Automatic annotation (TrEMBL):
Residues that span the membrane, as ranges: none
Gene3D superfamilies noted in UniProt: Medium-chain alcohol dehydrogenases, catalytic domain, NAD(P)-binding Rossmann-like Domain
Keywords of this entry: NADP, Oxidoreductase
UniProt protein name: Alcohol dehydrogenase
Amino acid sequence: MIPDTMNAMVLTAHGDLDVYEWHTDWPVPKPESREVLIEVKATGMNNTDVNTRSGWYSKAVEDATTGGAFETVGEEDPSWGGAPITFPRIQGADVCGIVVAVGPDADATLIGKRVITDNWLRDWSDPMDRNKTGYFGSEADGGFAQYTKIDERNVGVIDNDMTDAELATFSCSYSTAEGMLVRADVGAGDTVLVTGASGGVGGALVQLAKRRGATVVALASEAKHADVAKCGPDAILPRAPANLKSALREAIGRDTVDVVADIVGGPYFGTVIDALARGGRYTCSGAIAGPIVSLDLRTFYLRDLTFTGSTVVPPHVFRDLVGYINRGEVKPMLAATYPLKDLKTAQQVFIDKVHTGNIVVVP
């Protein structure tokens, strides 16, 4: 029996953690057309939850992602897509759960299946048009609740013995990472430098680049090296070596890399760019240490570098990821699990970045 109401953590405005409200009587969504209703078992936390809440995506903000409220947030561009989101909003993109009902035009055989969500909401008549996309938990309610709904084309059926919490670590982080590697055309023979390797996307980058046959050098704080090593990098260096080229030479026998996969940005940006070999590629999907950086354009063009931003991923990325998961080709990096009611505490722990991997909430 599906209830009429549910528990939900609801975002009411841009601001600090106090803009979240806990509700025990929020309406359970009703699946329409090709939508499925999912009973949420676990939902992963991501930087986009923090950035959307705080309004960090606004170009009026130039600071690092502290997780706190900002004094000035542009009214017209505080979300990843450059347009305001509507409140109240239930965040949470990385859902693992059981399909319990379907809309009138959806596949009824999905009922009872354990699924994870593809978070890119598309116009399915034109799925490659990035201008027609939204994000689950941003432009539509997500999984910080007992139930959520999404288009049937946005779920992947899981067939393995991982726990629900482990499965909730994959979708956002690993799709983001795979999208970056697709954009940078990473393959066997490449040497890839991964910044922020102790985070969810960073750990995914290490695993997925290794899966492609690349040599991987991870940057992470030394206290987290043992955990990062579980992802299988070829070398692990401190988060920001004073002499990166020297550290690379000692670790892998060369002082340049073919690809930088960056989710950090900030003041170390110029250093990692200087470590790119001629013809190298830089791909970015985050700037947690600060979005405003300095670039010497002579380095960019004289060394024939290619820069790619990566946000909206092609539809095949999620389908590929589900295959990797079901075949055991990637592993979860679950740092901690919290009750959904304690989301504020869990998000503060996430912001503090003492953990390695992903934090998950369960309803």
